[in-house]
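Extended Data, panel c. Modelled sequence:
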Amino acid sequence: MIISEDAPKIFKFRHVALTALKVAGSGAAVLWLVFTIQWDAFIDKAAGTDWLRLSIALAVFSLWIWPCALRWRQIVKSSGYPISLGEATRGYLMGAFFSAFLPTAKGGDVVRGILLARRRRFSIGGILATVFAERFIGLAVALFMVFLSSVLAFSRYSAFKEVFLSASALALFLFGLVLVYMNSSFRKFFSRFVHRLPLSRLQTASDDFAKVLDICFARPLLILSAVGFSFMNQLVMIVSGFLIASAIPSFDAPWISFPLVIPLNFIAVLLPSIGGYGIREASFVIFFGWFGVSEEAAVLFGMLQLLFFWVFSVVGGFVFMKGKNAMSE
């Protein structure tokens, strides 16, 4: 492998810069919440939580991992890297663990891809391409649900006009990215650019990455099934979110708000942050605020959903440690 003397410095600077950006994102959101929330009212709402309904919400929420694992496994297998559903599930759990408790500049999704590639001796570039493909499809589905919900409630809520316009702009941007990638002239230019870099490993990873994306674009049924799994995942999150809200006193949001707010929050947590901390809660305060939900109820909603994620993240930690011990033995 050919590496220039400046490469380690570049990678170190990138790591520090990304970490600083994520810390700044979460820090700013948390600081905003600290000065926005009336904490006495928050404690009162937390004390009045219906734990039976919350338990039912957790049971429904626990289904989220299966559509995600099935989606990833299907894309990975179609790309020539045979893995089991159990491996895909464990990968998602470990990714959740890193995202929640060991946040890095890479992010939990990248970590699960790297762990799978190293364990099975797959191409890191190829596996990361499968992660990118399934997350891109998940983002597109979430954006479609936001777009559809904003259209259905366009006339009832003034805030939906801005949401509709923003969703349309983001959809056009994603569609533009696909068109640019599929353009042969751009592909040739990008390939020449990468192969001029003094990193042979990056060149190989880039080629494997492109091969996986080409496979996905060439198989409409694969994309269609991945879209179906993404809809299933969003449905689980919406239903569990509705149940969480029903457990919180005076959480008077209309049903149409959940197919909008839940996917919107999914998009919002893609912003630079440490595991989504702060961004998740702040976005719920803003989005549910459109429907008259108090800041205290909305931030409690976000914290309860975060608590649900922590349950699976802890399981992912045990899975990671078990796999690490097995490899060392």
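Residues 10-328 form one domain. This feature is highlighted in the accompanying rendering.
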